[in-house]
Amino acid sequence: MEDLRNYKVNVTDAMTANVLGYTISGMPPPSAGTLGLSMVGAIFSYFLVYHSVLYGNSDAANGDLGLHRLIEALKHMFAIRMNLGDPAFVDTHEYASDMLSPSFAKEIQQKIFDNTTFPPEWSQLRDHGTSHFCIVDADRNAVSMTTTVNYPFGGGVLSPSTAIVLNNEMGDFSIPTDISPDHLPPAPSNFIEPIKRPLSSMTPIIVTKVFINYFILGMEPLAAVQSPRVYHRLIPNIVSYENWTVSDGNHIELSDERKLFLQEQGHELQLKPGEPSLSSLFKDLETLFRWAGNVVEVQMKTFSMVYSLL
């Protein structure tokens, strides 16, 4: 109880990144979400410029090869996040700022090869279920918020006095003795210390994919939302892909041709049926709100987002 009484919310400046003329703002460390989105966005921004200037190809983030590049970028993102931690205990400011820079994106781009994939040297902490709400008021102010108790039902303990399900966020810390093929090697920047906040794993890749589809590839809202998604968390070295049907009968899955292309690049694919239901709200200063979403037959998870087109 003393720890709860002494807990204070840290108010910090947001971190921002400029991608294709858009400014992305979000939480600094120990949150990992904005850094991941900004880094992947910056990498694809560099891809577009690089391939357009040198090869006359403005479609460098699209198609089979664009999907391969996205997967490789995700793997690098999950490896790099091991350097982050609670800034009150670990000096992450300079490193986090570097992650958002064009020079960093170029460095990562040079490690991605279009004709092959590479086995991982690091892995990602296990991430689990979350809750989300998306609210817009009469003045067009919008909030998109994700919260989590880490594992399903958190620590599995219900407080009898408050009826609050207690989380097990301590599981987000790196444990020196926790060494296995499916876990990160010990990361000193995220070791447990008194009053220290663990590194957050809340990096919704589903948002990154829709951002790329809408802002970079120019898809319409519904197409951006219903485009088949992939996921790679570095270890195990497997690309998960969707296979599910929305309520209007539209089936969402990678094409056989795209699966074959990824396998030829060296990727191991694994079906991930019935994962997310996604809702997106798009708005600008002049037009009405536009909503686009998937409604799956059996909803397991729901993510929402708000994009302000200013």
From TrEMBL:
GO terms for cellular component: plasma membrane. It comes from the Eukaryota. Its EC number is 2.3.2.2, 3.4.19.-. Pfam families: G_glu_transpept. The active site is at T130 (nucleophile). The keyword Hydrolase applies. InterPro entries: GGT_lsub, GGT_peptidase, GGT_ssub_C, Ntn_hydrolases_N. GO terms for molecular function: glutathione hydrolase activity; leukotriene C4 gamma-glutamyl transferase activity. GO terms for biological process: glutathione catabolic process. Keywords: Acyltransferase, Hydrolase, Transferase. L-glutamate binds at T148, V149, N150, D172, S200, S201. PANTHER family: GAMMA GLUTAMYL TRANSPEPTIDASE, RE13973P. This is Putative gamma-glutamyltransferase, Omega peptidase. It comes from Rosa chinensis.
